[in-house]
Structures are given as C-alpha cells and as structure tokens.
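Write out this protein's structure.
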Amino acid sequence: MSQSKKYPAQTVVVIGAGPVGLAAASHLVSRNITPIVIEAGDGPGAAISRWGHIRLFSPWRFNIDAAARRILQANDWVAPNLDHLPTGAELVDQYLHPLAESAELAPHIQYGTEVVAVSRSGVDKTRTIGRDDRPYLVRTRTADGVFTDVIADAVIDASGTWGHANPLGAHGIAAPGESEAAWAMAGALPDVLGSDRDQFAGKHTLVVGTGHSAANTLIALATLEAEETGTRISWAIRGESAARLYGGGDADALPARGKLGTDIKQLVADGRVTLMANFVIDELRSGDGAVTVTGRSADEPVSLEVDVIAGATGFRPDLGILREIRLDMDASVEAPAALAPLIDPNFHSCGTVPAHGEKDLAHPDEGFYIVGMKSYGRAPTFLMATGYEQVRSVAAALAGDRAAADEVHLELPETGVCSSGPTITADDGSVVFDKNTESCCGPAADTSCSTDSTSSCGSTPPARGLSTGLLHGYSGEITGDSEASSGCGPAPATDLSPGAEALCCSTAPTAANA
C-alpha cells in the first residue's frame, strides 16, 4: 500500500468476529483506529462453535494474539495454561468471548449482520478517475432483512471459508444429485459422539476427504462402531494413497496431528475402516432413507448404499461479495497473487510458513485486504498465528507506520522441529503434550525440510513453521508409501496436508469469520 493522504485511516470495517477478525480489531484499537466489526453469527467465533467438540492440534500459546492479550490483561483476564490444547468451545468461551466483551471492542461489534457486498462509494468496478479518493461502502443485511450501508476508509475481510465447502463430485463441481442428497450430508465435522450420535449409530457412513476433518470424523466413528452394533465406516479418497493423511507420525512438529494420521492408518489395517482409493463420485441418488453413491475406484465401477455422508473435501472462499472490488488474485489458489506462491498446495505442505504481511495482501483497490483463512483461498495450510501476523502488519499500514508493516515475523518453532509423544492430562486438568516422550528426530537442528532453492517446502532463508515430517504437496501423491521416509531423514515423502482444516494447525477448518 502506498502512503497516500488517506492514512492513517479513521474507520475500518472488519468482516468477521472470529479469532483473526477480533485480532484485527484489537490491533486497530491499539493504533487509535475505529474498527467496525460485522459478524453474521449471534456471537464471536460463531462458526468455531459448530465444531466446538474438536480439540486443536496446537496449544494456547500459538492461539492468542499479542494485541488481544494486552486488551484482555487490562480487563483482568486470567490466561489459561499455555501448554493446554483447547477445544473449539474453549477457544470461544475462554478467549473470544472475553475479548469481544471487553470495553475496548464490545462497542464496535455488530452481531447477526451479514455483509452482502463491498464496493467503492458512488462508483462501480470500472470507474478509475477519482477512485482512490472514494471511501468504501459495505452493504449489510440483518436477520430481519434490514439493509444498511456502512462507509469506511478501509476494509479487512476476515470472513473465513466455513460454510463454503468444496463439492463431493469430481472436477471441482457438484456431482449429479448432490444437492438433492443434502438431507444425508453431515458436514465436515459432525459431533459423532455427542449431539449427532443418533445420526450415525448403527448406520453406514461414507467419509469423503483426505484431510484432518475426515480423520477426526473417522476416529469418532471408530469409537462409535465399538459401542453401537451395525455401525459401518467407509472412507473415499481421490488420491492413490492415504499417505498424505497418515503423515509423518512422530516426525510431525505437532504431536497431536501426527498421532491422528497414525491412528487412522491402524484403523484401516485392522479392517474397521474400509478405504476406497482413487475414488471418483459420479452420481448420488436419494431414496428410501439412504443414498446410493455411484462412481469409480481405480477405474472399476462402484455402487455404495450409505445412510450418512460426511463430506470433508475442504473449503473455498466466497468472493461474490467482492465482485465490485479490484482484486489481484491467483487464478488457481484464489489467494492474493503475491501470497499464492508461498502457499500453493501443489508444492507447499511442510508446515513452513514464510512470514508475510500487508505487502503480500494488498490489492489494486488500496485499503482493502483479505486476511485469515480466506486469504489462503483453496490452500489448506493456514496457521492461525499467521493470520495474527497478517492483521498486525495491515493495521500498522493503515496507521501509516510503514516500517512496522514491513517488518513481519512469526513466533513459531523452527522448521524441522520433530517433537513427539501422546497427550496427557496435567494436574490442573489441562490436556498437554507428554514432554517426557523422546523425539524420533533428535535435536531441532536436524531439519526435515530442505530450504534450498529447489525445495517445495519453503523459501530461502528458512521459514519458521510447524513441520509435518513430510515433504511436498499434492505432487507428493505420486509417492507410494509414506513410510519411505520418516520425514526426518533425507528421502522425501508425501505431504500431510491439513485439508483446509488449519486453525493454527487445528483439527478443524478455520472458522468462517476467523
């Protein structure tokens, strides 16, 4: 963003009151800029609450924004155990709610209000003369159907991708009959062992997807299968191998994430989960309380009758509300053009996260930014801490502090850290990693991801990030067995792609409005 006469900004619309949206508001307030936070849900982190039963991969220390922490501490907030791995519900209740209710932010948040369009006031997308001098117009609609136009100097879109799932069908488009079978769709992260139990108990469920949302559902279904007679589990993936999900095991820098893949691999080996690789869904036919899924597995015809479908095929950004904004987006990833090469899922999945900020997020319309999970477009490797750094940099730019905006960094473990071990319950009830468990990889200096100019794992100089213990992105699917390399040795292996579920490498998709 150039240093134009409009900055420092006076008012900034923030779309979404998830973790990254509220972090953006916190940084703006700290720089004496008035945020106008517009949230479609009835409270902060509304979408996260949809998967509140899921535990994040990463402990609290990676999930709390610095500016948000300062506001909370000023309001006598008691910080949780920083080594605890919170659930989505704990993230909302213990962090987002207190932050949103603080005196600093509460007056600036509007709930139950949907953003339906963003534009420049008085002109459409084609008008250039005088465009940069015009403020932004954000049109909103309440649940009662009341429309309001909000005028602001800048806009930060932190609306996330939740609610905009990729289709089950091949080719990136819905299969015939997919919309008609919506009644049987359980979503990406159903509460199998809780509120949604009756939907799955004694039923045949098809889980579609190779990410960690799929893994969590498979693990929960396996628990249910052991308790409820007649419960059956089928798992369909598009790739030749599930190696991307099985992952790096102990070589993963987030032990909970590595263990998840290991557990799934064992369920398949034990025959408790029926895996169908190279599966292409051609059609879904509804009838008699079940859905017949027809398709092909390794070019062989398949017909499968199921009761429930848990589609965990990832998410894509909703760019429709931004139709009148001049965007510079990558054609394939649907992320800001400067950011896309750093996160392209065809090559990137090592968990390395090159620090990036306002310059990488800027668009031709000055003062407009897409941040958080939505900034990653269709790439599934977002880290919540990355979103915090994004909005810190953007807020600095909007305040006219160019130096602070350009100085970007991430406080994460060095690439190649290979901690391992199960979680344990601490004396205070917190769920933490067992620090007494040894790593398979030796010291952190033994990096699992090359950072030279030929590597697809990151950039030079080495990025900071959270290693999965495996290399490559979608291109790694051509590798057969993930055990060809532990991720800690020299041989490359397939990646452990978070499959669009990365709330700081969480087990769940980043919330809409995150």
